Amino acid sequence: MLSLRLARGSHPLVLLRRLLVACASAGVGFLLLAALGHASPEQLAWCAVPLAATVHFAVAVARTDPHARPSPGLSSAGFGPAAAPVVAAVTTAVSCLLGSAVALLFFLHLRGDLSGLPFDGAAAALLGAGGPFPAVGALTLLACVPVLAAAASAASLRPRRTPAPGDGRAAAAAARLRARREAAAGDGPAVAAPGVPGAAGEDPPVPADLPWGTALATTGLALGAYAGGFADAGDGAALKLPLPGGSGDAAPAVVASWALIAAGLVLAGPGLVHLCGRLLCALRPGALRLLAGRVLQQEARRVGRPLGALCAVATGGVLCTLVWPDGDDARSLGPLTVLGAALVVGCAVATVWMAALESRRARARTTTALLRLGASPRLLRRAALLRTAALLAVFAPLAAALGELASLPLR
Asked: What global pTM score does this model have?
């Protein structure tokens, strides 16, 4: 009930983001039902990619919800930090259930099971009309998106451990407090406004996932090369998995190598963003490069994983472009493949957008302090453009190179 009341009083943009989650859930539900209608395990397995993208997007929307971090007013009404994950899970589940219901209605209508409406049975052959359609299996598949998205949203917003008195963060905070007291008493230099990047000369913590992500991606490339060479040397009777869109087939080890590369990019995303910030701050930086680099270093954990996922999607796009057959043998993409690709790309881009909004909200106090200290809005805009250019300069060539290398087993 609290989730419904909060939804009724939400800003229209917040409602629009939840509507986008419902649309993504409807698309994934439609793909799952289509795979069930054809009784195709391979098609059902490929639905895991848009399913993961939708769950990731739903978590990003839940994190940007205004009620994800309870305000003092809500805390006084009993809405404490422990209740935030529950409300986020319920809100996400409601949005995804709405999308799943719409997907079921559209599927039954286009399949011809519901009559009396325009375009009744227009896609009967595509959706496997005439064959058995288990209702229990359909409801189970439709429940996957709400359950997974709600659980991931609750886990993402669970309360973190409070630092112990001897923790490094607490010690750093005590040191800053002593410095401010000394500055107020005239015994030391003045301290800049809190939250300004690099004001106290402290480097943001370096994400430790970059070596592990690099190892995963390298393992994926090695596995793909080995599996491709083994398939070329074999007799052609090995197990093959059909690729979406009629672009041929691939060995299961090759598909597993693509999954390892994608997981490695997602895992290495925060480290790559932090590296971009370190490069911007290198070699005697000015105010512009220092500001852009420090923001990237501080926001590496928040925007790194979505950027890594978007880089993985771009890598998959390069791979599909390189392995797609040319000439008259090329078959056109089917509507279900187009729907799945659009869901993956759209959710990846929207997740990065949500992470950028969350990062902007987290830096609101820092931005206000910088403006109060005399920084011009033009400087902040130039810093944002510089951050975007630095990320593109690192992630775009990386996606192109990994897509080229991952496509070698199929060329």
From this structure: 0.82
